[in-house]
Amino acid sequence: MDYPAPVARLIDELRKLPGVGPKSAQRIAFHLLRGSPEEAARLSEAVGTLLDGIRTCASCHSITDQE
User: Fold this and answer.
1) Which residue(s) pair with 55 in the sheet?
2) CB 10 within 8 A of CB 29
3) pLDDT at 66
4) Which one, 8, 13, 31, 67, has least CB within 10 Å?
5) d(Cα 7, Cα 42) in Å, to the nearest integer?
6) pLDDT digit string (tens) for 11-24?
7) Please, are residues 11 and 25 in contact by the beta-carbon 8 Å criterion?
């Protein structure tokens, strides 16, 4: 099925996540389409800032935002 370009792009990006196949990517995309702009903005901001300040702990090698 041909989706509008922004929807197709979202589905393609979601498919790159581990364990997310084509059907799951479509379900997630359509779930997001039913949400509010505020919900989408919060999700976008959370993903966009994920790597800011996150590092690997030198002693235990877990992820952390602390020194």
Assistant:
1) 64
2) yes
3) 86
4) 67
5) 18
6) 999 999 999 999 99
7) yes
